[in-house]
Structures
1.
Amino acid sequence: MGSRRLAQITLEYSTKKNKAFLIVLVVILTCFVGISLMLEKGAFLLAFNEYQSLTLDVFFNGMTLFGNGVFLIFICLLIYLYPLRDQSLRVGKFTEILKRGNWKLALTSLVLYIGSGLLIQIPKRILKWPRPKKFYDDTFTELNLPIWTKFSSQNSFPSGHTTSAFAMLIFFALLSKRETQKYVFLALAVFAGISRVYLLEHFLMDVAAGAFGGSLCAVICNFIWQRKITPKSVDIKKEAVL
């Protein structure tokens, strides 16, 4: 079977198995955009801020890590070091792990994170829209301020954390063969986006734009992975039992 035909079959299979998931994703993105357009800027943030509590502070500070650069690079490292499920690879055989690590998926994930991050910087630097701290200015301190948050002032639109979270997690969801895992990744991405509003770092429209941009990057990356990388790679399942 030719490599082009194999790539086509792989892509068709990926699209078919992810059809329901992609529909759910589009619905969620539509809700994000629709709500942000219907409401006055800051209305969702102010309403959400009324529910501030220590429990939610801890929860959303945890969720926002899925858009944190250091955390995502650490995830890429884990992908590289733990790809094969080979029981024969012990800590003492670190050089063997390095040689046989799943470097293609780790590198693809890293490039996706960096690429989506750089892409989102363009509108950020051009628009330079104020974040909630500067937007509300003197009245900002009257809000319920969550703990462990360093409030930024500029470059609000779009949300970089949301873009990174959706790019990486939606890409992982598209690669996953388990339906449950797909929606767990999606839920984590959604919570990561909402955390940016809860933590008073972004408005809902910033999150909506970041979610859309990150999801688009993930879909494109999945297309490249299925069309260009996977067909030319050794089958992961076969490689895992070597």
Note: The longest helix spans residues 204-229.
2.
Amino acid sequence: MSQRKEQILAYNVSILNYNNIVIMKWISATILILSIVIQANGQNNKTINRMTSEHKLEVATLGSGCFWCVEAIFARLKGVEQVVSGYSGGTTENPTYKDVCTGLTGHVEVVQVTFNPEVLPFAKLLEVYFKTHDPTTLNRQGADVGTQYRSVIFYHSAQQQKIAKEVKELLDQSDIWSDPIVTAIEPFSNFYKAEEYHQDYFANNPKQPYCRMVVAPKVEKFEKLFNDYLKK
């Protein structure tokens, strides 16, 4: 075997070993996240049993880059009733997409996810959230750069805040990423629905260049990782 082939083989083996290590870390983290789910369910069971089916739904507001990507992912999750793209966390009232893109409004591109916690617990939703973007890059996701693309969880209750902190801490300690998680955990303050053409953007524009090159690969990766959680 030539030296070049040996180098290529060694490189491929190292990549395979690295991927196996990452997979094992994710499996360990998933098991620990399940313990958070079980604990949260135990605390909420009595309250949930007294609720009507209408009031069982919860809302999560999440920022993790371009909302075209994020909406396409969460809309496919079993237990999700609705996903709306919009803007949160800033001071400008009724901002437009153009306003938010300046980075001067303080708003973040987010999705507001309405979900059934009995089908999709909040901790599991956050596992999907963390696994489908890079939570270690500040004010950036890939080529999308600016404060409007920052990684942030806007919690709607003390319980959501507690779970978000636990999941973030757990994943930070798992060393899945080489850099620390910079995802912010902040109280929800406002939400402005984005323009209609942003809603269901990937579903309506699958051949648009950004959708083909960025959104589609993310969705494909997500569907492989969370096949058991997809809507049938």
Note: The radius of gyration is 19 Å.
